[in-house]
Amino acid sequence: MENGFIVLDFEEDLNDYIKSFDTNTFEELYLENTSWKCKIKKLNEGKLFEILCKYEKIAFELYEEILDIKLSHHINSQESLSSIIYYDINSGYHGDHTDYGLFNIVLNDDSMDCMYYKDDEWKLIESKNKMIIMNGEKIEELSNGKLKAVNHKVIKPYGFERYIVTKICYPKNQKEELSKKQSNWLSI
Question: What is the pTM of this model?
Answer without folding.
Answer: 0.85
